Amino acid sequence: MRITVVFLLLIFSLAACKNDVEEKCAFIPDTKNITIDLKIEHLEDSLPAITSKQELVNFLSHHITLRDFVFSRSAYPSDSVFINELYVRFSNPHIDTLLLETKKIFGDGAYLENEFRSAFTTLKYYYPDFQIPKIQLVITGLETDLFVSDSLIVVGLDYYLGKGSRYPPNMYEYMLRRYQKNFIVPSVMLLYGIDSRYNDTDLSDRTMLADMITYGKAYYFAKHMMPCTPDSVLIGYTAEEIAGARANQDMIWKRLIEDEAFYSTDGKVKQRYIGERPKTFEVGDQAPGRIGTWVGWQIVNNYAARKSELTFTEVMMQKDAKLIFNESRYRPDK
């Protein structure tokens, strides 16, 4: 598995919600006898401290993943152009301001360490053979937010400085709200939750329903890895948006039926209901974007509740989206 969080722009952003239903925890497993070896390498100061191009070359030669994937060496026509570009970036006086702001938000990194440790311990409970990846914390000059592979996670901390940051990422406001520090670990769990090793899918099924169920299972996975994280943090709706989605499930359902959306393979239909948008205007001005993925999550939750004889991992490995849909008997309350 090798994924960057650009993928996540299709599935969630970050918000908090005070809805009583949402705040309930999922099943909390007993993990007191599970220990993990969590290795976090703090590289926040490394690149801002570079004083020569040779130092930069030496650093990147020892951190191949950073060079090739985080900073995308292949996107540059030559090594010299690549090094010159990065050297200019990290010798810019403003990088010190970015570093200080990052340290103010993240401190000694204890918050992230605790979040990763808890989530990976729970993941180890469900998947005993899971190998804990190494984690590197860096400042990329807003190059990359997350990189996730089997053995390594790289977090570009400067992407996650939150509202009011002096140097925010260049993106729409409704996307920016997701870039806060408590977004990081849920996003990693969602990336694991979409991976085929944990989320079996029928690749021949190109319907929107199949996509909805795949996303729904990813949310279901992440909720179990972080059982007391509010749904709004995982799906990325504001308090008002998620409350509105719950209150208007019947209207959302009706529109999906009217558009014959579930079994459509039309890319325009998929973009309408599961693509990244500020709103699903076809449903209503108050309907959040990606509403189809939220419905997919509700379908998976209903399926798991009705099929209580199935374990968590068995739910995740059920790849027949139509079966999950039919056996969930999900129908919004009228």
Tally of separate helices: 15
User: What's the rounded overall pLDDT mean?
Assistant: 90
Shape: globular
Largest sheet: 5 strands, mixed
Radius of gyration: 21 Å
| Number of E-type strands | 5
- Low-confidence parts, pLDDT < 50 over ≥5 residues? 9-22
Structural class: mainly alpha
How much helix, percentage-wise, in residues? 40-55%
Distance between the termini: 42 Å
> Helices and strands, in N-to-C order?
EEHHHHHEEEHHHHHHHHHH
Strand order in the sheet with the most strands: 1-4-5-3-2
Q: What oligomeric state is this?
A: single chain
Strand proportion: 5-15%
Question: Which SSEs are present, and which pair or pack?
Answer:
Layout: E1 2-4, E2 40-42, H1 53-62, H2 64-70, H3 79-90, H4 94-106, H5 110-126, E3 134-138, E4 146-149, E5 152-156, H6 173-176, H7 184-194, H8 208-225, H9 231-235, H10 239-247, H11 249-258, H12 267-274, H13 291-306, H14 312-316, H15 321-328
Parallel strand pairs: 2-3, 3-5
Antiparallel strand pairs: 1-4, 4-5
Q: How is this structure best described in words?
A:
With 334 residues, the protein is mainly alpha-helical. Helix content is 46%, strand content 6%. It is built from 15 helices and 5 strands. Strands 1-4-5-3-2 form a 5-stranded mixed β-sheet, with helices on both faces. A hairpin with a 2-residue loop joins strand 4 and strand 5 (152-156). Helix 13 crosses helix 15. The longest helix has 18 residues, at 208-225. The protein is globular. The model is unreliable at 9-22 (pLDDT under 50).
